[in-house]
Amino acid sequence: MAERSFKAEVEHLKLGEGETFTGEGILAITKALLESGVGYVGGYQGAPISHLMDVLSDAQELLADLGVRYEANANEAAAGAMLAASVHYPIRGAVTFKGSVGVNVASDALANLASSGVTGGAMIIVGEDYGEGSSIMQERTHAFAMKSQFWLLDPRPNLPSIVKAVSDGFELSEASNTPVMLMVRIRSCHVTGSFECRDNQRPSLTVREALSEPRSDFARVVLPPMSFAHEQDKVKNRWPAAEEFIRERGLNETFGPASAKLGIVVQGGMYNGVIRALQRLGLADIYGETDVPIYVLNVTYPLISDEFLAFCEGKDHVLVVEEGQPEFIETQLGSFLYRADSDVKLHGKDLFPMAGEYTGAVMLDTVEAFIREAAPEMLPANVRAPNAEKPQIPDLSKTVPIRPPGFCTGCPERPIFAAMKLVENELGKHQIAADIGCHLFAALPPFEIGGATMGYGLGPAANGAFDGGGEKRPVAIIGDGGFWHNGLSSSFTNMSFNKSDGVAIVVDNFYSAATGGQDIMSSRATNPTKSTRNPISKALKGVGIDWVREVDRTYDVGRMRDTIREALTTPHKGPKVIVASSECMLNRQRREKPLRNAAIKEGRRVEAPRFGVDEEVCTGDHACMRLSGCPSLSLKKLDDPLRDDPVAHIDQSCVGCGNCGEVADAAILCPSFYRADVVHNPGGFEKWWAGMSARLIGWLIRRRSAKRLEFQSAS
Amino acid sequence: MTVQEALAPRQADLRLGGIIKLAILAVGGQGGGVLTNWIESMARASGYAAQATSVAGVAQRTGATVYYVEMAPAGDKPPIFSLMPAAGDVDIMITAEMMEAGRAIMRGFVTPDRTVLISSTHRSLAVSEKTVPGDGIASTEEVKAAAEVAARHFICADFDALAIKNGSVISATLFGALAGSGALPFKREAYEDAIRAGGKGVDASLRAFAAGFDSAATGSETAAEGSPVTAASGLAGPERLLRGWEALTARALKLPAPAIEIAEAGLKKVVQFQDLAYGEDYLERLERVAARDTGDGTLTREAAKYLANAMAYDDIIRVADAKTRAGRRERIAAEMNSGDAQVMHVTEFLHPRAEEIVSMLPAKLGARWAANPKRMALIDRLFNKGRRMRTDSLPAFMALYFLGGLKGWRKRTLRHAQEMAHIEAWLDRALDEAACDYDLAVEILRCQRLIKGYSDTHARGQSKYARVMEGIDLLAGRDDAAEWARRLREAALLDENGKALDGALKTVVSFA
Q1: What is the pTM of this model?
Q2: Using CA atoms, how far apart are residues A85 and A206, in angstroms rounded to an integer?
Q3: ipTM of the complex
């Protein structure tokens, strides 16, 4: 079960004609899919579209009622491949994943799909993970659309525009026999707003019905000579058809006055940012009525030459607002102008920064610079010659610490890396390759374990060059999500086939945790629509890996350490894999907390563990911090004039995972930690016995106290 | 208060007057999303067009996360809102942690012409602050000072503690503070309705909301601060010992004035560690320092502090005593909210090694054993393993109680002999220096701070201490010796393995 439940929101997906939907972008997209009569949906989770998968998963009942098939695909390639159903059958299909990494994985399928062409509308909804909040390398999905020639929609970031883009996209796809990609940026996925609903449509042909009347046509198969025909078809038929559809249906928009000396061309997704800059410059009102003509590219690929040239008519300067690099759009528009022999001056990356997000400040500065150059008289006096001095605000860059993401309170991965650090203390530093997932946080302080990541499921594969082994063995870390995404085939068969002497640690937390806790093959929960409880170890045995050690409680740091040490030192030849399993604490707490509270209320016996530190015993050396980084293990300054350094302190958010005690023991740190298990609703005998012990202990304490000086502190 | 009044002093962007821009900076897991939802639904319910966005993703795993809301009175057409806060263009900035307030200021989201900054003063320490062996905690005061300059209006309180006190979470108190600030053109009821409409934990949220409201409206920062740990407030014991204690404190009063307060705290520490006679030893050593203190008393004061720490070293007896003392169980129970209806188990995590066992033997015997690797290996085999002791049960308690009662034995142990030898060498070293370079002598005393922790950490501390002392040897006689000694010590406290210290020592070698 995913981290966030959309059960309540799913009710909004049932709204019909004349009703108004209010909510988040991803829900609006889901609703638009249903209104467009989609026949199958799928995808693979990952920010910023994880929630789209969660919504679809929570909406399975509704989808089934409409005859829509939902797949939680094994990875993006599988999702892309699923669109094959639209090649021969007039069925609309949509899949979703994150860009650019998900598109990387899916690109094989997408290239084949684009070559074959589609009959039913095929849509790929890509959450473009670029700029603030992104967790991946900074690249553009745009290049994929160009190389495989599918169309790229980048609608203005408001719900009506996004919803319209979904239905336009399907029609465009069908009109041009080409898959389309709908790109939504991080903030658009979570932007809230409203739109007027239409009724949900059942697909005119369901996938079940299609199975009863199978179709095939070898002309669609990517094999010579058809593949050559596909290429010709793309440029001779599909592309012109798309251009015509885009032009006739007015998918791109223009705003502002018909004639002016200057204009702005903007990717749909950047429109609000441009308007905000114009608003701040006094050149647009809050409804977006602007004095500067704007040509909004709701379709960023293909670009429509004559539409663009018509916009440029009578203008001296045009600014292209295109986030990221390389500047594909600007280059193409420049070539349109050149071929048309135009003397319009095209601006873009000469004023905008080549790389990085177009933040509010970047947008304001650049748009202002553009107007200053193109039509300075348009700028209001206070912008042209500001007389207010900018205030001097103290520089805090040396004070404020960075706060990168890290392991949550009680995370079961923490003890694995604590153990790893202890082993490295004994055996020295090792070559460690990491994968994608929460475990990658171990690359940051305090653990600093893992030097590189090559992609999802590719951790052990990234150690391929070292598979032959040496004095020390290479180590790779991979999560259970990565294992099932691509790891089993790309990493573990690679290890096995090449007789790797390396070590791989599979961090099994029962979910695809980093993306929001979705179920995967080895999840322990029973899922009514998915096959779970398939052990990773069984899969490893199946690909010929015999040396497999399963640690079913990662919090046992000593055992974890011994197992890793054994893997690194055993004379056994061949791959050595440790499957370290404990449930993601975030999900476990979400599951168990309500049950525990209910049990306490009902009077059942419940033990609630939490850790603490004896301030008097802690010397403030912070050795424990360097093996933890847990948010609940923090520092406290004592009001003791004799102490310089703050001591360890565990706050209320501690979930009693045990890492502190285990690490203190395994690393022989200090005796400061204690665990307190509060037993709610203890049994009668238990209470009596505890009372007896407490009385005897109390007597001993008083006996000693009476004979010595006791300084009572009021803490 | 209407929004027009609230935003009156700023020079408005020409055609943007109607839009209110509110950003929230939180640490993942603080409920920034809940707060955003409340604000947004309240605005809509109050006849405003509103738009919220957030940057989800891995940042929500304990990282810094931003949420953003824009709103304007609803008209015929939907306004065009921005999806992200822009530097210099935020009306209300809410930060759910003090360093996040600093981050908001750094990012330009807090400007004196328009921004109302509402921040919780509590700290959620970043990993980089916690892992420093010394004190790496960033300065809250610096951020507060910057906020006073940067914000048009700055409201701050420990909204986290306030929330916990009211059985809720920080989003509720911050929502209350937003209401109390009057920065938005909505009545208190509108806020409360939004909480009720949310439907989850309504009563606790409303309580916390009210607390946040009052705090922001009255500008009081009071109730929120946790009760500080105060020094000893009472003293009890047999009459004979009390008299002895009085005599010692009277003697401490004769020390140089700046040292007296620290000396009293130190005296308490060493007497609690051992006994009155040991307190006498402490004072004797201090008096020796005072006699050579040619300065303003700083030397004696620093000696009072670090001598107490050195004399109350962390041996098995001290730890066992601390874990079996009066008041500990009650303190833990209070911290864990364990009452009479519950039973509480307390498990200690102990891991003695051969070194700790041998350090408890008589000095000569212990030294002989410690020098014999075979013997040490044997003891390790017998004793070196993690021991989890349930000190709420009689057998485990008795074992620690017995160890804690071995004070009479302590002075004969190897550990005691080692610690005393160290103290004498360290004190002599400082006092020898005092005559020619007073400041350097003070710095030498302060180097005792480097020795802390247990087992390996303790050994590392000792080696850092030794290396700093070697560096100081090179510095003797220089005018800036004290300054460099301070730098060496601070470098040693920066990281675990002494990389910074290596660098600093290299510099010293290069010029010394």
Answers
A1: 0.94
A2: 11
A3: 0.94
A598 within some domain: no
Using the Cβ of A700 and the Cβ atoms of chain B, whether some distance falls under 8 Å is answered with yes
User: Could you tell me if A53 and A163 lie in one domain?
Assistant: yes
- A518 shares a domain with A465: yes
Between the CA of residue A152 and those of A172, A232, A268, A360, what are the distances in Å?
Answer: 11, 20, 11, 25
Summarize pLDDT for B449-461 with one digit per residue, the tens: 999 999 989 999 9
Question: Are residues A452 and A539 both part of a single domain?
Answer: yes
What confidence tier does A72 reach under pLDDT thresholds 50, 70, 90?
Answer: very high
Residue A98 shares a structural domain with residue A192: yes
- Let me know: does B432 contact B356? Beta carbons within 8 Å: no
pLDDT at A393: 86
Chain B 7-36, residues with CB within 8 Å of chain A CB atoms: 11, 13-16, 18-19, 27-29
Q: Which of B343, B451, B457, B486 to substitute to test the interface with A, most A CBs within 10 Å? A: B343
Q: Looking at A121-234, list the stretches that DSSP marks H as alpha helix, in order from N- to C-terminal side.
A: 142-148, 159-176, 186-190, 207-212, 226-233
Number of domains comprising chain A: 4
Q: Where are the domains positioned within chain B? A: 3-218, 239-312, 427-511
Claim to verify: residue A264 and residue A194 sit in the same structural domain: no
Q: B111 and A391 in contact by Cβ < 8 A?
A: yes
The answer on pLDDT for B229 being more than 50 is no
Q: What is the largest CA-CA distance in chain A?
A: 103
CATH, residue A442: 3.40.50.970
Contact B75, A153 (CB under 8 A): no
Q: Are A400 and B99 a contacting pair at CB < 8 A?
A: yes
pLDDT in tens, A548-570: 999 999 999 999 999 999 999 99
- Whether the CB of B222 is below 8 Å from some CB of chain A: the reply is no
Enter the tokens of residue A415. 């003890």
Residue B347: which of A388, A401, A674 has the nearest Cβ?
A674
Q: Token digits for A67?
A: 């005859």
Find residues 589-618 of chain A whose CB sits inside 8 Å of chain B.
607, 610, 612, 614-617
Chain A nearest-CA residue for B14? A282
Of A189, A396, A677, the CB nearest to B142: A396
User: Yes or no: is domain B3-218 CATH 3.40.920.10?
Assistant: yes
For residues A109 and A236, state if they share a domain.
Answer: yes
Q: Is the domain of A224 the same as that of A275?
A: no
Say if residues B350 and B387 touch (Cβ distance below 8 Å): yes
Confidence tier at A247 by pLDDT (50, 70, 90): very high
Structural domain of residue A307, as residue ranges?
253-384
**Residue B5 reports pLDDT greater than 60:** no
Beta-carbon count within 10 A of B207 CB: 19
Asked if pLDDT for residue A389 goes beyond 80, the answer is no
Q: Are B205 and B168 in contact (CB under 8 A)?
A: yes
In a domain, residue A190? The reply is: yes
Q: Is A157–B83 a contact, with Cβ atoms under 8 angstroms apart?
A: yes
Q: How far apart are CA A540 and CA A503, in angstroms?
A: 13
* B contact test, residue of A393, A647, A705 with most B CBs within 10 A: A393
A204 in a structural domain: no
Find residues 123-162 of chain A whose CB sits inside 8 Å of chain B.
129, 132-135, 157-158
Taking contacts as CB-CB distances below 8 angstroms, the residues of chain A near B113 are 388, 391
Whether A8 and chain B come into contact, CB under 8 Å, resolves to no
Q: How far, in whole angstroms, is CA B15 from its chain's centroid?
A: 47
State whether residue A218 sits within 8 Å of chain B by CB. no
Q: Is A47 in the same domain as A161?
A: yes
Find out whether A187 and B84 touch, Cβ atoms under 8 Å.
yes
Distance from CA of B132 to the nearest CA of A (A): 7
Kindly list the residues from chain B whose CB atom is less than 8 angstroms away from the CB atom of residue A704.
401, 404-405
